[in-house]
Amino acid sequence: MVSLHGHITAGCHWLPKKDGGRLLVSTWLVASLVFMTCYSGILTAMLTLPRVNIPIDSLSDLVAQSRLPWRIEAGSMMFHYFQEAKEGVRKAVFDGKSGTFKDCWAARKNIATGKFAAICDRTTMKKAMSWDFRRNDDGGGETESEVGK
């Protein structure tokens, strides 16, 4: 800031002669510095995050692998969708399942610990992932209100 103050008051050939112009230039310099610092910090954070390897990206990938068993929510629309399939990946998903589970929310702990993969609707899985991230952020404990949700 001392350097900025010195440039503003002492002047040089590229600074405006009037105080209003100098104020505008100094504001622009400070704003540029702030934006540059924020951008470089965000860029550094994005580049230093570890890459997450997602081995299963589709139903075809799920059926092709044998390391992780998968289950379908019993009585759900997904269960009936795969059950009625006559051929293809949908039939392979239903035939290769390792069982069913009551509901996606109740199975969230088993899914999060990797006991099995679950085929659930998107909304429930987003809620379960939110629960898992929130639980892991505060030390792994869950409160009574989280269990009752």
TrEMBL record:
<feature type="transmembrane region" description="Helical">
    <location>
        <begin position="23"/>
        <end position="49"/>
    </location>
</feature>
<comment type="similarity">
    <text>Belongs to the glutamate-gated ion channel (TC 1.A.10.1) family.</text>
</comment>
<protein>
    <recommendedName>
        <fullName>Ionotropic glutamate receptor C-terminal domain-containing protein</fullName>
    </recommendedName>
</protein>
<dbReference type="InterPro" id="IPR001320">
    <property type="entry name" value="Iontro_rcpt_C"/>
</dbReference>
<keyword id="KW-0472">Membrane</keyword>
<keyword id="KW-0812">Transmembrane</keyword>
<dbReference type="GO" id="GO:0016020">
    <property type="term" value="C:membrane"/>
</dbReference>
<feature type="domain" description="Ionotropic glutamate receptor C-terminal">
    <location>
        <begin position="9"/>
        <end position="117"/>
    </location>
</feature>
<dbReference type="Pfam" id="PF00060">
    <property type="entry name" value="Lig_chan"/>
</dbReference>
<dbReference type="GO" id="GO:0015276">
    <property type="term" value="F:ligand-gated monoatomic ion channel activity"/>
</dbReference>
<keyword id="KW-1133">Transmembrane helix</keyword>
